[in-house]
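Final paragraph of the annual report: two paired records, presented back to back.
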Amino acid sequence: MFLNKKIDKIMNVNQLAADYFIDKPVNKVFLFGSRARNEANENSDVDLLLEIDYTKKKVDFFDLYDWTEDLQRLLHQKVDLIPIDGLSPFVAPFVEIDKVLIYAKR
């Protein structure tokens, strides 16, 4: 029973996060970290890697801050948003191993 609730919560978080970006200049959203590895607990944050479409809108720090705040209210969890082009080359290989596509613009 606990496992089913945990799976439902993970699926719900993924869907809510993906739905949030439908009207944003974001081409793809990847989940990474403990949630992507199915190792999350009640204290785990939601780590999202964003492929931003800068041809649609100039996305800046304030946009990322607003999106983070919106998602934290929506998901009731801490959220970290990382643009792909802002990912450290030292961290990128570890993110690449974990990442799971949860949204792709059609």
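The closing record of the year follows.
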Amino acid sequence: MNLRTRLMQQLRGWGPVGLLYILLCTFTPSSQTVLPETFLDRAIPFNPAGVWIYLSFFIMVPLTYLVVDTPTLRWLTRALQASGVVAGTIFVLWPTTLHYPTIVDNGISAQFLVWMQKWDSRCNCLPSLHGALTALCAWALAKTKNFWVTLAGFVWGLAILYTVIQIRQHVAVDLSAGMLLGLLSGIGAQLLQKRSLPEAHVASPVLRTSDSKVAQGLK
């Protein structure tokens, strides 16, 4: 599959998710549910320096689209679309937020995090799309059956998920919900892909028969 086709698949899969999230950032609900912190959140201290690994998510997604094979590419596109639709529905029906820490540090990482949060929605926490899409990309990279690519995807994904909590963009509850959403979307996309394969196999003999008849007619 050429680069242009891969970019189009990425636009079809990731584009609607981003557009939906941007539109929902303009939505201000009348009430929001505050998500609780767990022992896992308390075990990971807040550190704005994690923002850079957090942002590497925006490299991981397009890079995954460049690495995986054609069937995985289509699977990933469907899974991302499903995650976006489900998450967007939940964001509207059940807006959630969390207790964001006050940032007093004047360092570059801290100030960049402050700037980033100004543009981010604080009522679209559960499920975490960062968690869902990171899990799907790590899964897609594992489908390459290449040990080093799989390992890199796992370690990179784990680092991103850690920093999601470290910079308090999400807590363990909504991050876990996002990862679960990614898992279910991936399973659904996989089932849909397997269901479409028999139809292609049924159609192919018909085409071959038709082609042979045409060839005989030409003789």
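Residues 3-13+47-198 form one domain. This concludes the annual technical report; the extension proposal builds directly on these records.
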